[in-house]
Amino acid sequence: MSDLTPMTPEYAAWLTDLKARIHSAQQRAALAVNRELVLLYWQIGRDILERQGREGWGARVIDRLSRDLRGAFPEMKGFSPRNLKYMRAFAEAWPDIAFVQEVLAQLPWYHQIALLDKVVELKAGPFKPEHTGQLGFYLSAVDAQMKAEQDGPTIGLLLCKSKNKMVVEYALRDSTKPIGVAEYELTGALPEDLQTSLPSIEAIEQAMLGPED
Q1: pLDDT 10s digits, 167-188
Q2: Quick one: CA torsion of 164, 169, 174, 180, rounded to 10 degrees?
Q3: pTM here?
Q4: Contact at 8 Å (CB) between 160 and 125?
Q5: For a designed S-S bond to 69, which of 25, 60, 79, 161 qualifies (C-beta 3.0 to 4.6 A apart)?
Q6: Per-residue confidence (pLDDT) for residue 208, from 0 to 100
Q7: Is 146's pLDDT higher than 90?
Q8: At what angle do helices 9-55 and 109-117 cross, to 10 degrees?
Q9: Residue 146 — φ and ψ, nearest 5°?
Q10: Would the pLDDT of 15 be above 90?
Q11: How many whole angstroms separate alpha carbon 106 and alpha carbon 30?
Q12: Phi/psi of residue 96, each to 5°?
């Protein structure tokens, strides 16, 4: 160890810079892998939707597909019936591939599941007053069909690319539903406090394609 180059200030500064660049490259690679994973999920979900509609297949086709895909790719963990149903719901909830590519592909898959499980609405453009009516309809449907007696009212969150505060205020003034409106922002690099939310490349490879039953 005595033959190593001394830790001079110049070397320390260079090492710090290299570590920052390596970390940034790892982050970009993880984002790219995650993006391809989410787009694959969407494509599988879209195929299920289209073929069920065209061929008249019922829900049991998902069980058959799960068995066949797991047989063909035994090393992959994301082809359970439950996860395939999430893929179908994902494609049904957001049929616009451009929106999926621009916004949703930047989120890890377990965040997609959270959006599907929780009356969250994502809009690619600015807030419009008619969005509250659509979300209010979804809230009423969830309250009527899914809410237990002991549960409180379902809360709706509308995420838009931009919003005008006055328009939002007028749109919600007479609404009886608990609805919130917020802006989202796309960025090329994750904020430091959110970096741990994105799975590493290793985690994506090891748990390829999401949760099992």
Answers
A1: 888 777 777 777 777 766 554 4
A2: 80
A3: 0.60
A4: yes
A5: 79
A6: 45
A7: no
A8: 50
A9: -125, -30
A10: yes
A11: 10
A12: -85, 105
Q: Which of 57, 37, 40, 38 has its CA nearest to residue 49?
A: 57
Spatial distance between the Cα atoms of 47 and 65, rounded to a whole number of angstroms: 11
Number of helical (H) and strand (E) elements in the chain, helices listed first: 8, 3
Residue that the structure tokens 């599907």 belong to? 116
Residue 147 φ/ψ region, left for φ over 0, alpha for ψ in the -120 to 50 degree band, beta for the rest: beta
| Dist. CA 125–CA 131, nearest whole Å | 11
Tokens for 111, please give them. Answer: 């965040």
Q: What angle do CA 112, 102, 93 make, to 5 degrees?
A: 40
| H or E stretch at 9 | helix 9-55
- Per domain, the residue ranges of the chain are 8-96+200-213, 109-197
CA distance 52 to 46: 10
Architecture of domain 109-197: 3-Layer(aba) Sandwich (3.40)
